[in-house]
Each structure stands twice: as C-alpha cells, then as structure tokens.
Write a structure and sequence with these properties.
heterodimer; A: alpha+beta; Ubiquitin-like (UB roll); five-stranded mixed beta sheet; 5 strands; B: alpha+beta; Aldehyde Ferredoxin Oxidoreductase,  A, domain 1; Aldehyde Ferredoxin Oxidoreductase Protein, subunit A, domain 2; Aldehyde Ferredoxin Oxidoreductase Protein, subunit A, domain 3; 3 domains; six-stranded mixed beta sheet; 28 helices; disordered N terminus
C-alpha cells in the first residue's frame, strides 16, 4: 500500500468535507499501481456530486477550471492522470480562476 | 409580424465630428445577418472605411461603439457595448467590450450603435435621447475624471444619474496616453489598445445615452424570454458557475490562486511565480474579507443578477469614506502581485486611480512592473524617475507615477507610450524585461506561461487582446455542439494551437450581440436561438461561428493592409519566457512556437505567411478581400 496526501483547496474542499471553507487534507492509502485517475475516481465514488465539478463531461479529463499539481508540479507536466502514484506523493486540487 | 417585412434592429447613428453632421444608416437584412452588430459589424466598418495610411489619431479613423441584436433585452447582462477602432498600441485593429448600460440605453433609442468619424475642434460630448442625437460642448468637462463625469453630465442635463449611461475619457484620454481607456457607468471599461486615446484624438469627451421609454423591438418576445431563463438556469444549476462567478464575480481570484500556488498569478513582472505573502495578509485579499470590511454594495449591470459588480467604501483609516467601484481580479492582480504589493487597500486605491484617470489597468500594471524591475536592477535610477523610490510594492510612489503618466509629466511622458515603446525608450535591459506581444499590446492579468492557450491567443490575435478566449465558461454540451470533444493539455503545443484555431469565431460572434460573457458563456446552442428569437432569422451554430470567423478574417486583412504581418505573431522575450520557479518551472513555449503557428495558420485556412487564402475568404462571403490583398485566383 502507498500513502498519498490529497490537498483539496476551497471551494472544492466543501465537496469532500461538508461545510469546509478551508483546505481539506486527506491521507489516502492506495494499492500498488494506482494511478491519479483511479484515486480521483475513488474520491468521486464516495462523493458522487464531486464528479461533475472535477471532471469534464466528455472524455474523462479534468474540468477546465481545475488545476492539479502532483508534488508541486502541474499534473500535465508530471505525467497526467495516468501517472502511477508513489508512496508519499502529494496531489493538490484547486480551482484556477482567471478573471475579468 | 413577418421578418421579411420588418427588420429588427440594424440601425446605426453616424456622427461626423469634423462637420457636426449626424445621420442614420439602416443595414439591409443581408448585411445585418452577416455581421449582427458589435465586434463583427465594427470589423466591417473598420475594413471598409479606414484604408492603409490612416493612423489611429487621424480624423479618418473610425470609432465604433455598438450593441447587437440581443442588446437591451431580457437576456441577462445585455447592456454591453463593443468598441472597435484602430488602436495606438498595435497600430492595428482593436475590439474591446464594456458592460454596464450603454448598449441597452442606445438600443432603447432605436439604434444598435454609433459610428464616429472626424475630429471636433473643441471638446464635445454626444447626447442620445428621445430617439435622436446631438453634439454638445464639453469644454467645461475637460479634466473631469471618469467617476465624476456621470454626475457632472446628469446635473447639466437635469436628470438622475440612473437615467443615463455615460462612457467617456479621463485626463489620460485627453492627453492621448497610448493606453487610455473608455470608462463608464462607474468603472466599466472598454480599454484595450488605447480606445480612450482615439476618443481623445477626436476630442470627444463622452457618449451619453438617456434611457428611452420605448422597448427594443423583438420578433418573438416570449421565445426570447424563455431563452433568457434557460441561460440563467444553466448558470445556477452549474455548481462551478454558481459558486464562482455568480456568487463572487472575480473577487476571489488573487487569494485562491495564491493559496493554491497555481502559478496563474502574474508576480513581479514574471520574474517569479511565487507570490510572497503571509496567510494573514492573503486573507484580506479574499472575497469574504473584502465584502465584510469594505461595504460591498451591488451595482448590477442591465438585467444582470450576478453578485459581481459592486461599489466599495473604506470604513476607517486615512482613506475613510472613499467610495469607488470594487476592483475586479485583473486590477487586484495588476496592482497586487504584479508589482510585489501585499497591501490590498493599496491595490484598491491604485485601481481607483487607474479608472478615474481613464487608464487601462492591465497595461498600467505591466508598465509599473517594468519600472519596478528596472529600478530594482539599476536600469532606471531614482533621478530618472523624477525622484520616486519605485521599489517593489511601493504603492505611494506608484500612485504618484500613475498621475504623471495620465498627465504625461516627466518620466510619465515616456511611460505613457505603453510597455513596448517605453522599454525601447528606456533602453538597456528594459526590452528584455517588458511583457507584451510583438504587435504592441499587453496581456490580461495572469501568468500566461501557465495557460498557453491564452499566451498563444493573445500573441496571434488581431484585436489587441484575446480573440478565441479560454472557453472555460462554455458549457460542455455547447462545446460538443461545435464538434469539439476534449479540452487541451495546456502544455502541448499541438493541443493549444489546435484549440485556439478550433474555437476561433465563437467569442467574436458573442461580442457581436451586445451581451456579457459571464451571463451567456459563449453558449453556441442557445445564443443562436436567442438571435433567432430577437430577429426572426433561422441561424444555427455553424452560421453563428461564421459571423465570428468573417470578422476575424476581416481584421486580419485590415492589419495586413496596415503593415502588421505574421512576424509580429509573437510574444516578447519576457512574455514568452520559461518560468524559473513554480509548478511549471523549466517548461517554455518558445521552442514550439513555429510549429504551433504553422498548425494554427493551416487550421484557419491561411497560408504559411498567415494570410487568409482566397478559398477561405470566399467561403466566408468576403471574396472581395482576396482581391484587395491581391491574392491569386
């Protein structure tokens, strides 16, 4: 088993921890070979309404407003959703607002 | 009522400031349907009426301020105006939109927009009311800032400020600062690429529209009302939009991106991706704190239900009692992390200065960042800066410098030329620090090295700002209706250049309707239906897209005729640089640029030099442009 820290920033955090207005910090234990996508699907499995805010409806990519980093690196540059997780990895999920 | 017998909209006011003549022009149905209004109609006017050799400040330049077929209706946020002209930063086309009420009030007077030509001998303002228009002397309004302008005009006309929409220029526009903006209705700006300077060159202080009692004529009012409800429901039922723009507007952008370390904030002129701010300070930049501590009073635009635009007041301290428009994300970013400032009240005061003096806040932020970096690295001395200590984050010095820019005083005269030209005039390493596109405009207030779609779009755009946009607001089903399934990998050159090409036209179509994108989200399913309900036409998504593409190609051809070639489809060295730190450190776009550009041109139906082909132009119904450009048969 591998321990992965998930940091979910507001307001996404409210979907994982009801009423949360701050960051939600979770430690998840995953089987060897688990990919980032699998972990996120596990989260969605526990909180169904997380799926529509986390994933784009088309081909299972992350929604356009979501910024994800793996160990401080933009997820797309760290291997993307298919990246196999290692013990001690930190996955951070945020809403990347661009303004007007 | 048969659409074949009655045209719904398409009437424009024509104003010649040189002669004082005012007349009207009714578009025939074919032209009206091809161009709709706003940005697309403005592109047609620009192409047809501003030939090569006419410079931005000359009377022959046109200034178009246009709503569109949805303006002033029950579509939420349909008070938007699109400004189209030849702008001073790029010496090319500009389209820039402002929300508020002007579009709705002009439409209530029976017009879709105004086309302004010539230049007055003395400062004037245009007053539209009771279905007609007149030019009035504005000499007594010289120097009035954009915040007080509406009250001055209202008092003069003997009306309540709420009955008029006033869009005008402040001292910056009167002094022809290259990035002067047109600002109105308490802080709404159509500011990109120096629109305010064009207005200043025409000696036009303001456009004032008084709300008429007449309704905007609509082909199917009930059908349009139904679509307005659907568009709003699609926002409220979308948890991202409900918790995002609808609830907070853009107010949480700096705090969220800083706390999340997304890399999206512009920090100290792109010298770093890390915004050094304590958690305690950062809390003060967030929406809940700002709204609680600064008297958040909603100031909604025409028919808008968002909790977005607002006024604020400072409750205590040395600036107690100060009231102004609550800053947007772009302003908080420009006057916060971009200049190394962690004091949110300082950023709010700089935003107010920018608005009141009539400056475009994005460009101003990049100018201040350039100056602070030059000062920090010894490229500019305190003496050269008229004694100002322009260290990172010095808000007081920045505020003094902003006034100098607006009045072209001292070093302000150099900086009034905008980032690109100022950097060249400063010399030394300044050009390597400057953030801009090679056409001369600056980007919006983010670090686009983390969002390559916007970096590529801004650098290749014909409008002086983004032209495709991020499409982040577009509902997924609307995207799929255009045949586009997936979102791009933000760091793939192929994905990004394809995305920017594939979505081209959608945003320009939307900007031709007189609507606010936060409300309508470039919804290519329901916006064409809304146009049909308003006009009686039978437009589908593909025809709608062609309206936008037609305008894009017209603006491309306009720019080519005015000497802006593909060699300028590039970011500056700093804008296109590789981040040194942050979550995308070491990953840069420039090595991929040539391949991206080739892919982009090919997908748009342009040749390898970025010139639209004859086949592309003819398919869009503007084959005459191919003749104008001398393209082979």
């Amino acid at each position: 088993m591998r321990r992965v820290r998930i940091e979910v920033m507001p307001w996404l955090s409210g979907y994982l921890v009801e009423g949360s207005t701050g960051p939600a910090l979770l430690d998840e234990y995953v089987a060897d070979g688990t990919r980032v996508r699998d972990l996120l699907q596990q989260l969605v499995g526990r909180k169904r309404d997380l799926e529509e805010v986390l994933f784009d409806s088309s081909k299972g990519s992350l929604a356009g407003h979501v910024v994800a980093t793996l160990n401080g690196r933009i997820l797309e540059l760290a291997g993307g959703l298919e990246t196999e997780l290692k013990d001690g990895d930190t996955l951070r999920l945020m809403v990347g607002i661009v303004g007007g | 009522m048969s659409p074949a017998q009655t045209t719904f909209g398409g009437k424009y006011l024509r104003v010649d400031l040189t002669t004082g003549r005012i007349w009207t022009e009714q578009l025939d149905d074919e032209i009206h349907r091809k161009y709709l209004g706003g940005s697309a109609y403005g592109a047609k006017v620009l192409y047809d009426e501003v030939p090569a050799g006419v410079e931005w400040h000359q009377p022959e330049n046109r200034l178009v301020m246009a709503s569109g077929p949805l303006g002033g209706t029950r579509i939420n946020g349909s008070g938007t105006i699109s400004v189209v002209t030849k702008g001073p930063l790029t010496n090319g086309a500009v389209t820039s939109e402002a929300n508020g009420f002007l579009g709705a009030f002009i439409r209530s007077n029976g017009y879709d927009g105004i086309v302004i030509q010539g230049a007055a001998e003395r400062l004037q303002y245009l007053y539209i009311h009771d279905g007609r228009a007149e030019l009035r002397d504005a000499s007594h309004l010289a120097g009035v800032d954009t915040w007080n302008l509406i009250d001055c005009v209202a008092e003069e006309l003997g009306v309540k400020p709420s009955r008029i929409s006033v869009f005008g220029i402040g001292p910056a526009g009167e002094n022809l600062v290259r990035f002067a903006a047109i600002i109105g209705d308490r802080g709404h700006a159509a500011g990109h690429n120096g629109t305010g300077a064009v207005m200043g060159a025409k000696r036009l202080k303001a456009v004032v529209a008084q709300r008429s009692t007449e309704s905007v004529p609509i082909y199917d009012p009930e059908g349009l009302a139904d679509i307005a409800k659907i568009l709003f429901d699609r926002i409220i039922n979308d948890p991202v939009e409900r918790e995002g723009a609808y609830r907070w507007g853009t107010l949480r952008g700096v705090a969220r991106n800083a706390s999340g370390k997304t890399g999206l904030l512009p920090v100290k002129n792109y010298t770093t991706s890390i915004y050094n701010i304590s958690a305690e300070e950062l809390e003060k930049w967030d929406g809940p704190y700002l709204q609680e501590h600064y008297m958040h009073q909603r100031h909604n635009c025409w028919a808008c239900r968002f909790n977005h635009c607002a006024l604020f007041a400072i409750k205590d301290g040395p600036n107690q009692g100060f009231v102004d428009e609550e800053p947007e994300y772009e302003q908080l970013a420009a006057f916060g992390p971009q200049i190394g400032n962690t004091d949110v009240e300082g950023a709010m005061l700089l935003a107010s200065d920018s608005n009141r003096l009539g400056l475009e806040s994005n460009e101003l932020g990049w100018v201040l960042g350039l100056v602070m970096e030059c000062y920090d690295k010894g490229v500019l001395s305190r003496e050269q800066l008229d004694g100002l200590d322009m260290r990172w984050g010095n808000v007081e010095a920045a505020r003094t410098l902003v006034r100098k820019i607006a009045y072209r005083q001292g070093i302000g005269a150099t900086l009034a030329e905008g980032v690109m030209r100022a950097a060249r005039m400063i010399g030394g390493e300044a050009e390597n620090f400057a953030v801009h596109t090679m056409k001369g405009n600056t980007p919006r207030g983010h670090d686009h090295r983390y969002r390559w779609t916007e970096l590529f779009d801004t650098s290749t755009s014909n409008t002086g700002t983004i032209e495709t946009g991020g499409m982040y607001l577009m509902p997924p089903d609307a995207r799929q209706a255009l045949g586009i399934e997936t979102l791009p990998n933000m760091f793939s050159g192929a994905d990004v250049s394809t995305f920017v090409a594939q979505f081209k036209g959608a945003m320009v179509f939307e900007d031709s309707l007189g609507v606010c994108r936060f409300n309508t989200r470039t919804d290519m399913i329901y916006l064409p239906r809304a146009v049909n309900a308003a006009t009686g036409w039978t437009m589908d998504a593909q025809e709608a897209l062609r309206v936008g593409l037609r305008a894009v190609n017209l603006l491309r051809a306009f720019n080519i005729r005015h000497g802006i070639g593909p060699e300028l489809d590039l970011p500056s060295k700093r804008y296109g640089s590789t981040p040194l730190d942050g979550p995308a450190a070491g990953v840069g776009i420039r090595p991929l640029w040539d391949t991206m550009l080739a892919n982009y041109y090919r997908l748009l139906g342009w040749d390898e030099k970025g010139v639209p082909t004859r086949a592309t132009l003819e398919a869009l119904g503007i084959g005459r442009v191919a003749d104008d450009l001398g393209l082979a048969e």
